[in-house]
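Protein of interest.
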Amino acid sequence: MSPAQRPKFLIVAASLALALASGTTAASSDRPDTYPDARASDPAKLGWMVGSPPPPDRIVRFEDGSYWRFPALRWSVSNFRQLMPTVNVSRGLGPVAVLPTALRDDIDSLTFTPLGAQRTMTWRESLDANYTDGIVVLHRGRIVYERYFGVLGPEGQHGLMSVTKTFVGTLAATLVAEGRLDPDRRVDSYVPELAASAFGSATVRQVMDMTTGISFSEDYADPTAEIWLHAAAGNPLPKPKDYTGPRGYYEFLQTVKPRGAHGAAFAYRTANTDALGWIIARVTGRSVAQLLSERIWSRLGAEQDAYMSVDSIGTPFAGGGLSTGLRDLARFGEMIRNNGAFNGRQIIPAMAVADIRRGGNPADFARAGYRLLPGWSYRNMWWVTHNEHGAFMARGVHGQTLYVDPAAEMVIARFASTPVAGNSANDPTSLPAWHALARHLIATTR
């Protein structure tokens, strides 16, 4: 592709890349306090995409990347299906598993001290601080707290970003528990097309726990980082005429080069989840979207279908393409809290959940340098705190969260649109809030 075409084409690839994943550390110059606050950036008040047609200054588009610019992204995260191609994740035709409600009036005033701060903050203040779009708290399977903001309502769906990875990891852990997937086998024994790539010599377990030695930088400030090639490959829009790179996620994975030794350390890389999605598809004969519907979503008693974004040949984006309803995300978390059982059936093998909760090697995790996550580990694409409650969670950029605290019998599902992508921007006012609520529920439950 020519130098003139590259910036125009990659502006959308950039926005796709930023939607990918993780908890990368936010740059010091990229702070939430440099943006309009939650109320000033409220997408409903700003009127994005309202009208027939909307005013020109209130239109967001996928093709030019404007959908991912703040504050427009606060509308986009609740409306991905209007902007890009997707594939459905059906809930099936069964009845909804009703979540009992027992709302509490003592949560908004709960106080905690943010990480690195001297002054306390209330739970309600933290929702604005983190640009919360919706939050549900379950305690012993009952909804005790539920709030929606902006353009999201109970009937809406919201992008999960890298919480998607946790669903893919859970599917893989299920296949391992069932004996259909051998975590000690090499990747190329399942997907021969990856034999010449860095993934070929890795084990499935190393992919599941992101301890592969692959060359895959997610430094968005580096124009040569592999994340740009990944995003360009997955971009479903037509490629420039002189584009010669990979044309989909599967083609991209075959180009990944080695860097370092497999199994040496944890390194968060979105490409691992795409590779795992390919392995799962090859083992089961079903795409991750189809398998998610058949094995989890249609058994969960979900209220709504979910959906996943896809590349130009319809491959679901395993690394970050899932959108769901908030209560349905909470149902999934409650199922995991109950060792894989929910809606009157065993949905995920208890053995798989036990393996998730055990976590990975904290020493491997520590090498990744997550300053705000001391003592944590990563297992089956779940983040494990190893705190006194045994809490573990799923995390996605811009504040997407599924937090499970077994000791408190608590599940928190949150959608957000924090202007800074990396979770280090919202962790200080999120992680202590989750733990404070867990302690409060334990202390006030008879």
Summary: The domain at 5-94+127-162+286-444 is CATH 3.40.710.10 (Beta-lactamase). DSSP finds 15 helices and 15 strands in the chain.
